[in-house]
Each structure stands twice: as C-alpha cells, then as structure tokens.
Sequence to fold (820 residues):
Amino acid sequence: MDAIKKHFNASLIKKIASKFGTPIFVYSEKIILDSIKSYKTAFSKTDILFCYALKANSNNSLCSILAKKGIGADIVSGGELFRALKAGFEPQKIVFSGVGKTEEELNYALKSNVLMINVESFDELEILKKVASKFKKIANFSIRINPDIDPHTHKFITTGKLGGKFGVSLKEAFRMYEYSKKFKFLNPIGMQVHLGSQIYSVKPYVMAIDLILAAIKKLSERGINIKYIDIGGGWGVDEIRGMRPPAILAKAINSKIKHLSGIKLIIEPGRSLMASAGILITKVLYKKKSGDKNFIIVNGAMNDFIRPALYGAKHPVYSFSRNKKKLKADIVGPVCESGDFLAKDIELPLPENGDLLAIGSVGAYGQSMSSQYNSRLRAPEILLKGKSEYKLIRKRESFRDLIYKEVRLP
Amino acid sequence: MDAIKKHFNASLIKKIASKFGTPIFVYSEKIILDSIKSYKTAFSKTDILFCYALKANSNNSLCSILAKKGIGADIVSGGELFRALKAGFEPQKIVFSGVGKTEEELNYALKSNVLMINVESFDELEILKKVASKFKKIANFSIRINPDIDPHTHKFITTGKLGGKFGVSLKEAFRMYEYSKKFKFLNPIGMQVHLGSQIYSVKPYVMAIDLILAAIKKLSERGINIKYIDIGGGWGVDEIRGMRPPAILAKAINSKIKHLSGIKLIIEPGRSLMASAGILITKVLYKKKSGDKNFIIVNGAMNDFIRPALYGAKHPVYSFSRNKKKLKADIVGPVCESGDFLAKDIELPLPENGDLLAIGSVGAYGQSMSSQYNSRLRAPEILLKGKSEYKLIRKRESFRDLIYKEVRLP
Fold:
C-alpha cells in the first residue's frame, strides 16, 4: 500500500484515468530502474548475465528500459524472440527456453544468433540437430535439468520437480551431452535449472547450484566444457511490500561460485523486476450486498488480471478515497462468472461509485495474461517517467480489434 | 470420442491442419444446426425466445448461423453488443445482462433498441434511470433475482447463490420494481434468474420457476406486469458424449408454465449450443518422461484453451494415430508453467512426433477465453460446412498482432 502511495501520485493517477479511461495499467519507470540497480549491486562481484523473463511483461517500452541497461532476455516462444529483438535486447544476451519449441522457432533463434537454446528433451535435441545441420549453423545449447527440488510454491508454478513437464533428469542430460559430441552443429555450453516461481528461500537455489557444480565437473572430465550456469528465475515478490532484496540471494549464490573462473552465471528474473512496478487502476461502478457479503463492482475484471482467479493470488488494493468509513468487501469485475474477482474480503475506505481503486503488484503476469473474454477490450498501458511525465505505451483496444482477424462469410 | 470421429473426418482434418497450421479450432456447422433443432423441437409448444450466450463463442460466422435461425442473443458487454449486431441478431431479441454495465454500455444498448436490460443491482437501476432520462428513451428492463439455489457445480460457475455477486434478493427486487414505477423512462417487463453453468439436473430450474411464478403474481397485484420469464442458461454439456437433450429440461419447464398466457419464456443456452461443435487440433511436438510420468508436448497450450487450468475441466482427447501401442500420458503445451496442460493421465494410441491430436468439446469457452500469454499467437478458426467444405472464419495472428496496439517510445 505504502509503495503504491509513494510511487503513484494520486492526482496524477486521477488525471491519467480521466484522460485515458479505466481499467488501465500504470507502471513506474523509477521502480523498474531501482529493481535493476538492486540486482546489479547485489551481484556486482559476480560474472553474471541477467536475462529478463519476457513472459512476465513483454511491452516494448518496458523491455527497452531493461535492454538499455544491459539486461538480456529469457524467451519462450518465437513471439517473444520477435519482441525481444524489437525491444533492443542483444541477441548474444538472449536465452531461448521452453518445453515445446517448434522447428520454425529453433530456426528463427539460430538465424538471430541468440546466446543459447535451452533444450528440454532428447526429442528436442534431435530437432535442434536437424535444424542446425540443415542451415549449417552451430547451435549453442544448454540443457535444462530437473533437479527434483520442491521450492514449496503453488503447484502450477512449481517447475523443478520430477513428474513435471520441465527439463530432464541429470542422467538423461548426460546422455544428451554425450550424444551431442557426435554432431559438429551441436555445441553444449550451458546447464540450466528453473525451480518455479514465487520462491521465498535461498535454499533451493543453493541445492541446485551444488548439483550443477558436481555435474559440470563430471562433464569436464568427459571433455564437455560448460561455460554458463543458468539458475533460472523465480525469486519471489512480496505482493504487499514489493521487491525482496536480491542481495540475500546473491550472497548465498556467490559463496558457492566465487572460486570458479571461466564460468558465467545467468539468472532470469521476471516477476521480481516488474511486479511491483505496475498497478491496475479500476473505477468503482456499483456497490451491492448479497447475503452478508458486500461487493464492490469495478470495471476491471479477470480478463484484465487473471492471477486471483487462476492461482488464488492475493494482491493489495489501494483506495484513492479518503472516506473514514470502512467497508469489508470483495472487489469483483463485470465478467459473468463467480471466478471474476480481484480481491476477497478486504477492508478499505468505503468508496463512492466513480472512485478509483488500484490493484497492486500487477506489473508481472498482468497484461501479458490478459484476454478479450466477454468481448472486453484489453486495457492500455502507461509508463510514468519522473514525477509528472507519463507516456501511453499501449493503446486501449476498440470494438474493431475484437473482430479484425475474423473473416465474415457471405 | 465417437462424436469427434463421426463429425470430423480424419483426412479433412489433416488437410486443414496442413493448409492452415496448428493449433487450430475447427467447428462443425452440422452440430450447431442439430443443437438448434433439438432446442426448437423440445420447446416447440412453448412461447419462447432462445438467447444465445455470446460469451461462449462470439465468432461472427458462428453467431450468424444462430441469428439466421431466429435465435436471439444474451450479451454481457458493449463488445458483445457490437458483435451481436454485426452477426445479425435482431435487437429485439437481445438481452443485456451482467453485474458491471457502464453508462456508455447502457446508452449503447438503449440506442440499439435491445429487448431488455437485465438489471443486477439498485445502483445499476439508478444509472439506467439516469441514462434513459437523459436520452429520453424508455428502458425496458428485467431484474436478475438471486434465488439462493445451489446447482452443485464448480464454485466459479455457480452464480445463483446468496453471497455471490450476481442478481439481487427477491426483497430487493420488489423494492426496485416499486421504485421504477416513479419514473416514466423505466419500464419493468422481465424477471431473470441464472443459476450457474454445467447444471445436470432440472430441479434447480423448476425451483427457480416456482419462485418466479409466485413473485410475478405478487407483482401483478401491485400493477407491475412481467411479460418475460428468463431462466438463464447453464444446461450442462457432457464433454465426452456431447449435448444433453434439452427435451428433459423442456418437459420440466413446460409442465410449470403451459397454463400461462401473455408470458414469454427466455432461455440463454451458450455451452449447450456450441461446446460439442468445436475441436482444437494440435500437433505432437515431443514426447518425454519425467519420473514415472509420460508427457506428450503439443503445440496447443493454456493460452489457447484455459479450461483445464482454470476450472480443472476434463476434455476428451482424440488421437488420429492408429498405433496399436497405447500410452498413458499428460497432454501439455509449450507454455512455461505447470498449469499448462490440456489433459492429464489419459490413455491414447502412442503418437509419433508430428501426429495430430484433437481436444474435444472446445466450441464454448475455448477461443473466447484465449490469450497471447507467452507471446503466443491466437489460433485461427475453421467452419466445416457439409461433408468436405471448409471456411476460414478467423485468421491466425502474426507477430505483428502482438504489438500492434503498443506505442514505441523514442
């Protein structure tokens, strides 16, 4: 709440809402720059490449803030590669992950000279070999290891457990590295793990690094030299208080890798760079009571921000009302299902219809997961620069945008 | 499965997949026409208006099949009104529902001469009065009653329980009807209930009708004449076997209302008209094993079809492979989260990489809930007409479509 109050000036927010309408995403450049800085400071003594996980928020203007600061990109689709290049990320700082890359995507990545392709199955290695051979292009690759570590997060965002779809076992990875030796277009340079999202402890990272260090030692004995250790992302964000200092993470990691030379660390922050930087401004439409429950109906909905419905995520709600009278209510949207809520059972100053509410910590996995469900128009995005400057960085959709890919039959 | 095999000819599906690529939604016009027919036959003796719930699937070409057959529309947003009018639904067959209609949307609906606006709170009635008075336009309206009936479905799609955001109590409705008498631009003509989705029993409908009949009798004694009884939608679909005969529903309802005259019944089928008509064709990219679990990685994902992740919905998977060898596996997509699955623990003929799989019963709440998450391009849609004719009714998105609303900062 305090973070919202501090970084998003109430009168400026009202001005933006009245000029561009609501719902609308508003991001603070200052918060993004601060987050970059705290990562850089924390890891100042580490040979490191930060690869921003574009899936968190791939808006061109936000991505280019990161690219200009020398950050790289963690991408998971051809669309994200397209966006990363448009935003100015250097190809040699782009890592391509994901369990289901197509031939076309692998080809696009090779042609774009990305740093490495993070292979997640033997089948994929075969296809990578095929594509690389066809285009006579050396494919630098890493392998994503499934370390079988449980980071104790939501089951949907746990990604490093056996029995999940991500990565391969260490044994399988060794088979793949060995196999790749036979083909001149396959060049193994990295090893990756990704444990999940919203991780609040350094312990799983330390365990994963121990596992990787032991593995690359063995690989080096077999003539395979791993130059990149990629420990993925997943460093959690405190949705109420904002970014959690990466210094804690850095300290734990550095103690493990400081003695290594010729090895570069890659980490892939997404949420931790972007979540706290964004708020979703919505307008109160109606208030009503059903049974014992109060509802505040706002014009933002699950199509704009699906995390509460999909993951049961709890995000702070900041009211711009100064009413001393309080109300305990659910904040719900106009979409026709009970799953359409933005917050449940929260207490806030009783708003008037027309008042603004801000949902906090939506800079990551907000707009990037939005849809047109219920034929709602996807919300625009604004970037705050400095104290009073703001820029429209994504326009609101129009009715026309709902149907512009449709073909009307005669 | 049999329904997929019967209505979607394997060689035609392969042809479409190779011509337009995958993932791709394919709909059968025949199934839609059959569904319309079974509703019409079941209710042939009832004075009834069918209002198709556009939120299920609002593609222009699919909607116009329904509009041409005299079906009306149940809409929940300005965007849906725009789409309904484009598809040719008669305004006097359009009902506008939803808890969060804006002034602009109410104004648009009045100007479009929709049949009625289904009001869901006292606050909304006030705004409707304001808009109607301002434009000197009579607002025909119904009130959505919350009957406090539990239809025993998923908590997100239960919509007629007290403590939920939908509708108002009967007591509140009476207050609203009475209140409206004072204003010449407010004209009460209907009463609505909507119980939820995926309802498998007629009992909640019968209970709701009893409640409405008692209420409109009382209202008539107070000089308020209700002409439309709207019992909403929610008639469940068997995802494996397809549409459940509406005759069962019709029989139960008719026994209650056959003696009434001057009253028109409205029902709002969405899923039951459209779900079984659609399949999602995906291509097998890779197979892998993690722990004891097999994964088939396909190129369709949760951004294309979110029901398994969001509601835990179980949809049938049909394999076009004829392999005698079977595999028990999860069908997962390329999106980077564990929640990205299309089916879990299903047994199917072991597919080769490159083979096609069809996810069944995706005609409703499939494309309409899709997003560009992970910068994936939203899938195209194809309509099958007759045995071998097919039409592209929505084009696949391009990379350009990911960013065309974005504004690049200098």
